[in-house]
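WARN retry 2 of 3 for item q-0093 after timeout on previous attempt; input resubmitted unchanged.
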Amino acid sequence: MSGSNSVQTITFNEIPYAFLVPGTYVEMRPNYTNAGVFDWPARVLIVAQMLSSGTATPGVPYQLLSEGQAIALFGAGSQAQEMAWAFLEANPYTRVDIIGVADAAAGVAATGTITLGGAVTAAGTLNLYLAGRYVPVAVGATDTLATIQTNTIAAINAVVKLPLVASAGAGTSITLTAKHKGTIGNGLNLRTNYRRGDALPPGLTVAIIAMSGGLTDPSLSGVISAISSTWYTDIALPFDDTLMAAELDRRYGAMVGLDAHAYVGVSGTYAALVTAATGFNSRFRTRIPVTNAPNSPWVWAASLCGVQAFQSSNDPARQTRGLVLPGLLAPADIDAFYAVEREILLTLGYSTWNSMADGTVVIERVVTENKTDTLGVATTAWQDIMAPKVYSRIRYDWRVFVTLQYPNNKLADDGSLAAEADDTVVTPSRMKGSWAGRSRLYEQKGWIEESAATAQASIFVRDGTDRNRLNARQEVRRIGNLMVLAGALEFQV
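OK item q-0093 returned
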């Protein structure tokens, strides 16, 4: 209000009202009415199994600084080291913590076999690719199978970052044993001759039996307890876990507000992936599937987490199609998913990827697991990862804005004389005006559209029972992304 007949109280926090000493006293305080969007405090957590050779305490988060640090903390060749490498390759900028999980005491390590055969007739190189790492073994023209076996075992064990160890098996075979116990060892890929130009030394044959037999993964309940009140925006998971799915739902709840999105890699045939799709439905978790990929599923999860954490921090509403998952080796063409298969996988809650001619892996579409609502009705409301990311970003910004702009205000009805005279009084209409201003800002950022209409349709009312409570229904319309361009090309006849 202004004018000689108006009554307006200016409220001070530091200057006493009954102060008699002459002077000019000015207190400093911010006004957030026109503040821009508040910075999003992106923070990532990597959850991974650790080896007993690591110095870290299981269940305790450590800030990740380098792959070398991960080796010291969690052991060379550990799942934690692999995920740390993949994340840092994709995103060396975002704050990331890593928490180690000890193998289950009752776990069983997976094993696989490489069997050598034939007789070498000329020198060459045995090109092994184990869990996505290249292990070359020099083969001499006169080497016997026993010599090649010994040299291969030595070459494998010399690569300390490998998640497996080699030992002599029966005859000319080599037994590979996962360093970790649990089912994750079953996902370690063994192959020869991945890159163009690779070939076995003349006369040498190699037969591979895939890793299998790994049993019993550790529980993540200790991890959940350790992070229950810590802010994380993105979480890379080592394997599927129902406890973590429930934790993500809890964190997103209105009374918790520790929004986090998790990423998990899964390996299997197309048919197996389709069958497994009935067992998950989280709005806050993303699955990236692969079939017979050189790199392990958890490496894919950590890489995708790195890319998404960085990109969604910059712009939560923008798709990441075409962005590279650095360091990953694409599966062979025969193991890649066809367009029709990718369409089905997307509808089932799997994210999809493509590979370039040089083997580079790029993102196609990142979705959540969510397929149905709480009543079991099919829905696409939470399909794309941009949905929870945008809503989280808006909720976070709005909460910070209200906390800073109205830290200790009083509440009155619209039209109240107190509201007209006292600048510390907020009313439903004033709060709605603030929401309209923030909505306009969110639209200018490209997160939502039609902000004028949705803000007008939003409702702010004072609670009928609790006079200290303001209730609101705030509407937004999330912006879309150009994913499909459908056109009819007509020609003259």
